[in-house]
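Notes from the 1:1 (GR / supervisor)

We went over the backlog. Supervisor wanted to see one worked example end to end before approving the batch request, so GR pasted a single chain during the call. The sequence is below; no edits were made to it. Supervisor asked that the structure be written out right there so they could see what the output format looks like.
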Amino acid sequence: MILRFKIFLFLFSFLFSSAIISQDLIRFKDCKAEIEYLIQNDSEKAFVLTDRLEKSALKRADSLDLLEAYNYYGNIYGKRHQKYKALEYYYRALNLKRKYSIKTSISNTLNSIGIIHHGNGNIDKALDFYLQAISTLDDSISDYQLTPRLNICKLYLDINELDKAKEEIENTNDYLKVISNKEETALLDNLKGVYFQAIEELDSAKFYYKKT
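Structure output shown during the call:
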């Protein structure tokens, strides 16, 4: 009788804990979209939810949710201009993503690391990570290549390497002819305006600024 009771308690405990884990999985799957929204609008709330996601992922030994949490931390700290903390978490996310994630996700984090180095003035590192973000995709033609390509254009404009900026702008323009993306086209037009302003062709600069 005692043995049956112990077995019953064990089964009840197991089923109850499994139900809790299932509810957590559903809840945290839903909250990821909320975190992404809050990062742009309320970083404090985003931080609280990300902390919950991290703790749950560690408890469940869920590497996929954990890398998501680390990536969110990187985005939050980047938004707060705490660049070294952002880098710390992006690198943590990257280490896990190299094991578990698809290439587009790895590319996004490489690009995010490049942006932080770019903002810190570490131009060589920034360029290296932008190029890694592109090469990780194995030359596949997709929207995911556009952001690091545009960032390379901006990098060369920022350091006044105008010949290289022109070359990258032309290459990215050719790429956009294959990938139709209105938002990225507007960003490239703005960079064209910056380029023509830098070489003092003001009519061309105004033309591209107006297009954006």
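Supervisor's comment: Residues 2-26 have pLDDT under 50 and may be disordered.
Batch request approved.
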